[in-house]
Predict the structure of NADH-quinone oxidoreductase subunit F.
Amino acid sequence: MWDKDRSWTLEAYRAHGGYEGLAKATTLTTDELVGAVKASGLRGRGGAGFPTGLKWSFLPAPDGGPRYLVVNADESEPGTCKDIPTLMANPHALIEGIAITSRAIGCDHAFVYLRGETAHVYRRLLAAVREAREAGLLDTGFGLDGAQSLSITAHAGAGAYICGEETALLDSLEGRRGHPRLKPPFPAVAGLYARPTVVNNVESICQVPGIFRHSPEWYASMGTERSSGHGLFSVSGHVRRPGQFEAPFGITMRELIDMAGGIREGHELKFWTPGGSSTPLFTADELDVPLDYESIVGAGSMLATRALQVFDDTVSVVRVVTRWVEFYQHESCGKCTPCREGTYWMRQILERLEAGRGLPGDVEKLESITDSIGGRSFCAFGDAAITPVRSGIARFRSEFEAGYTTAARELFPYAASSVVNDTVESAR
């Protein structure tokens, strides 16, 4: 829909098959809806890749009380940029997906938790919800008795990265400080307002309408055996045409870089991330690894949100990892000591190494700190923060050790890696 005129409007969406999936879904029972999503093989697109239909089935049997759907639109990890563009270009795909999902789980109130900084996206989402409601698309068929209308609340968060963690998001949505909760209980049992709750990513829910508009078999025919369907691959960095590429799972990074016009002229690929700043780095050796969940894990990284950041031979790994750790240190919620203190220590050491003022043993100290954080923090934030450090040292140890005597800016001048400078020079 991104190339359609006024693609964000209800008129444009319906002209291209919008809400046909919802119309078919109204003829199915809740068990049939959940079964169809299971059969499609749809996996969560927020990072973990957990089977979506299976997640829905974890809700306990109805007890007469409310249950909720919460859509995680708090996209904020460095390099990740698929959900916000989708909401800008095609918010009705999310609303149709919310309507089908709500029918499947017996919910009559859904929430979309959005980053508050994206005010333009927030306004567009509110307008789309209003269009759907006025068109009668949310009127009946929701709730445990199937006789309710659907309420969709778009909530603007305050810009905390930790709120991308589902339980911290729920606390924030309830008006508390965004801190992760102890699990169990899991949200499926005691989530929003201590009621059964499904928490899904924007892209996960946006995939649902296509499954019902076509068929589960149609969806499962794409991708690989265990990573079926298609998804958004966000290619950024040192390629000629960075952008969003919609493709089946199993495509390779080599193919995507070719689609993006290749590495910028006169340079070679140095390293890249398959799933954003929290995933282990890859190099040219992994360009032909299929981009599906199992293959990427088998190669030593994670597919996560498919934030494919490309860095060429002008880039200092130390500089990149330092910027990422600065982000994680700033965004640590502070609830647990390993993450709160460990990210601060890592930042101090990395900034020394970047400036060429490293102390003897700093690289080994970084490795020791990552060992003290990994698996010991309250949530997955700590593991995310240490991943680029561990991976960077494992792949490019000599560059980190060079920081004992030489600043990164001397080894890799800033201007050399700047895409802006290249653009200005080309214009001249």
